[in-house]
Specification:
3 strands; 8% helix; Transposase; three-stranded antiparallel sheet; 1 helix; mainly beta
Length: 63
Amino acid sequence: MVGVDGYEVEAINLGGRQRLRVSRLVGGRRYFIACCRTPAEVAAHVDLADLVEVTDFSAYRRL
């Protein structure tokens, strides 16, 4: 999911446990912000209402 000001939240598997990684794209570089266990922890860094899901349609062919 992406938000305003270059923030991105993605689900990752870290040490066999699911986590939410928060990062930010600034000037073409991605910076790690936090590794969170819950959406409440993510909300400390990003306004959850600003996040939108991004879907990659490049894998679909036009008929």
